[in-house]
Amino acid sequence: WATSAHTHENFLQCLSLQFPNSNSISKVIYTRYNSSYESVLVSAIRLEQFFPPAKVPRPLVIVTPLLESHIQAAINCSKQHGMQLRVRSGGHDYEGLSYVSYQQAPFVMLDLVNFQSITIDVENSTAWVQAGATIGQLYYTIAKKSPTLGFSAGVCPTVGVGGHFSGGGYGMMSRNYGIAADNIIDARLIDVNGRILDRKSMGEDLFWAIRGGGATSFGVVIAWHIKLLPVPETVTVFTVNRTLEQNATKIVHRWQSIAEKIDEKLLLRLFLTRANSSQHGKETVQASFVTLYLGGVDTLLPLMQQSFPELGLVRSDCIEMSWIESILYFSGYSGEPLEILLNRTSSSYTTYFKGKSDYVTEPISETGLESIWKRVLEYPEEVTEMELSPYGGRLSEVSATATPFPHRAGTLYIIHYGVVWNEAGENALNRNRRAIRRFYRFMTPYVTKNPRSAYLNYRDLDIGVNNKGNTSYEQASIWGLKYYGINFERLVHVKTRVDPGNFFRNEQSIPPL
Ligand code: FDA
Q1: Which runs of E-coded beta strand occur in 138-228?
Q2: Please, which of 88, 137, 236, 382 could form a disulfide with 293 given CB 3.0 to 4.6 Å?
Q3: Is the beta carbon of 133 within 6 A of some atom in ligand 1?
Q4: How many C-alpha atoms does 128 have within 13 Å on its Cβ side?
Q5: Gap between the Cα atoms of 470 and 98, Å rounded
Q6: Which H or E run includes 439?
Q7: Nearest CA residue ID for atom 49, ligand 1
Q8: Residue 26 CB partners (closer than 8 Å, separation 6+)
Q9: pLDDT digits (tens, 9 = 90+) for 267-280
Q10: Is 458 a catalytic residue?
Q11: DSSP characters for 246-313?
Q12: Which candidate in 99, 170, 413, 458 is catalytic?
């Protein structure tokens, strides 16, 4: 602690020398002796298990920059005084890596909460969005300017664009428009030397790396320049539930081969949960098909009848609405005023949670599905919900090397596993983590192998972590090949060029050679 106190004093002194206006320093720096430190730290923590007093090292200092020069100063001073830097935009990292260091290193947290501005250019269908804005704020601001423009990114409005876009960004329009990273046309980034770079000055290699490779290994993204996407004035949504007694096995089996091929304006997401069977009064598995169609119900119905009659969709299941209302629908806010999208803290994810991911390239057989249902019902503690999101469409038209996100042609769908619990404390945390790991092992025969792929935005430290300090390429490739496939090597080369001293590092950052 003595060394930490010393480091942190030196760091503060360095910052006060570098800040252009020393009066502003007290508005942007929070040390542990500051009464607001705790509230600033927890303000964007989305996953309950990382709330203090969990046994995880906290930042020595929190910086909430108001100006780009504050970020430059924080980078310079952290470097000079041997502190790590963690950057937080929306705070939704599944393992809390934007504000937690499992490596026990003294670190500064840079919280971009004051970088939230969004500028929409309707005429050119583009926008600049600062990294600390949330996707809810982005969707709201676009919709206020135009009813026929939108953007392709995730579902939960409180997710931050800083981490989300740099790790991919899958949402309900991804089959038509790809992931968020596919629609980024420029960026502003501060590198390890404190230089402010745009696409031209950073070069195509670095610009490539931060769109799906996790920007946190390469610098601090200040803002993204994105291409806005046309949306029709009317879209259609539906949620249709089928239990095992209602033929769910056959319907899910069929879904696997059609959801990736069907018209790309249609995204049929599938949630699998346990439910009480109304017929037998015992537990069953329920498949919920949660869907967005970029068009009206009159064209959707014949399309579904032709491609997926097994679901038995009828007109009364469907609701027509505007694109922005569909954002409220999918995030569970139907009927609420649009302004709810501006709320940075309204997350329903306030219980304890652990998530993992898998990719599927071959349909799971009906017998395989039946084994999964049996497991889900016999061991309810292992998984609370499975979310199956289809790929195909625009996602598979983009080549696997166009961005670091490699999950393109040939991918049928991604599975997101989540276990949720209410009991506080380390025992419950460890018990639930062990439980979901057992389920993940059980799923091995059904998912991708060599590598067993995973989605960076569903960060999972179980799939491998770096060695403390300067990790080896071999160690990092254990997890790196799972997230990035053939793109891992290029990411390492970019890292070697732009941050050879490995300043921007965490438990799963790209290492330099
Ligand atoms: P956070 O601030 O925690 O950052 C995540 C990572 O990015 C950290 O390593 C951080 O250091 C780094 N980082 C953040 N800002 C940076 C910056 N400006 N420059 C450089 N590095 C930066 N995903 C998805 O694809 N579709 C979805 O629908 C959802 N839905 C969803 C719901 C909920 C409730 C959660 C908790 C998560 C999701 N996600 C998701 C996953 C989400 O995309 C992922 O957690 C993102 O990394 C979150 O970005 P934040 O900026 O919010 O997180």
Answers
A1: 149-150, 184-190, 196-197, 220-227
A2: 236
A3: no
A4: 11
A5: 19
A6: helix 426-442
A7: 163
A8: none
A9: 999 999 999 877 66
A10: yes
A11: GTHHHHHHHHHHHTTTS-TTEEEEEEEEEEE-TTTSSEEEEEEEEEEESS-HHHHHHHHHHH-GGG--
A12: 458
- In angstroms, how far is CA 19 from the centroid of its own chain? 33
Q: Supply the pLDDT for residue 366.
A: 98
Pair of tokens at residue 137: 């704020």
Asked whether the CA dihedral 355, 361, 363, 365 is positive or negative, the reply is negative
E strand spans, 61-209 = 61-63, 84-88, 107-111, 118-121, 126-130, 149-150, 184-190, 196-197
Strands 229-230 and 29-31: unpaired
CA of 154, closest atom in ligand 1:
28
Residue 439's nearest CA partner among 316, 327, 272, 321 is 272
Cα-based angle 133, 136, 139 (whole degrees, multiple of 5):
100
The answer for residues whose C-beta is within 8 angstroms of residue 511's C-beta and 6 or more apart is: 466, 470, 471, 472, 473, 475, 476, 492, 495, 502, 505
Q: Give 234's DSSP letter.
A: -
d(CA 44, CA 404): 27
Q: In what order do the strands lie in the sheet with 184-190?
A: 118-121, 126-130, 220-227, 184-190, 196-197
Q: Which two tokens stand for residue 195?
A: 């230089």
Question: CA 391, CA 408: separation in Å to the nearest integer?
Answer: 8
Domains of the chain (ranges, CATH numbers): 2-113 (3.30.43.10), 118-230 (3.30.465.10), 235-322+341-446 (3.40.462.20)
Give tens-digit pLDDT for 297-345.
Answer: 999 999 999 999 999 999 999 999 999 999 999 999 999 999 999 998 7
Which residues does residue 271 pair with via DSSP β-bridges, in sequence order? 288, 387
**Tokens representing residue 191 in the block:** 């590198």
Predicted pLDDT of residue 283: 95
Residues paired with 126 in a beta bridge: 121, 227
Contact between 239 and 330 under an 8 Å Cβ cutoff? The reply is no
Q: Is 460 in the pocket of ligand 1 (CB under 6 A)?
A: no
Report the amino acid identity of residue 416.
H
Q: Residue 199's pLDDT is what?
A: 98
At 4 the pLDDT is 66
* Residue in 78, 151, 164, 211 to alter for ligand 1 test, most ligand atoms within 8 A of Cβ: 164
Say how far apart CA 284 and CA 182 lie, in whole Å. 39
Condensed to tens digits (0 to 9), the pLDDT of residues 357-401 reads 999 999 999 999 999 999 999 999 999 999 999 999 999 999 999
State the ipTM, two decimals.
1.00
Angle between helix 323-330 and helix 135-145 axes, rounded to 10 deg: 160
